[in-house]
Amino acid sequence: MSEPTVADATNRIYESLQADNADIDAHIATLKAALARAGLKEAVFDPAKLVQNNRSGRKLMQAYFRQRGVTVKFSAD
After folding, report:
1. In terms of domain of life, where is this protein from (predicted)?
2. With the C-alpha atoms ordered 50, 43, 11, 61, is the resulting torsion angle positive or negative?
3. What is the pLDDT of residues 52-67, one digit of tens each?
4. For the chain, how far is it from start to end, CA to CA, in angstroms?
């Protein structure tokens, strides 16, 4: 089995957020490893796909991911 790409890991995080954060820490770890393999410093998320697409929801997500070593940015759609 091949290692998941950044896009795969990001999609799993969207699914986890929709499922009330099921296994979110494992998915964050997978994303962190995928970012390292791709040589990227930050993950970019589409705010339209978030459960809580408001400022406090985005800031909470950024803080939670930052504590686990992943910098989160949001695309401007």
Report:
1. Bacteria
2. negative
3. 899 999 999 999 999 9
4. 34
* Residue 57: Cβ within 10 Å count: 14
Task: Express each pLDDT in 26-51 by its tens digit.
Answer: 999 999 999 999 999 999 999 999 99
CB 16 within 8 Å of CB 27 = yes
CA 52/CA 69 separation, integer angstroms: 21
**What are the tokens at 28?**
């964050």
Q: Is pLDDT above 70 for 77? A: no
| The one-letter amino acid at 12 | R
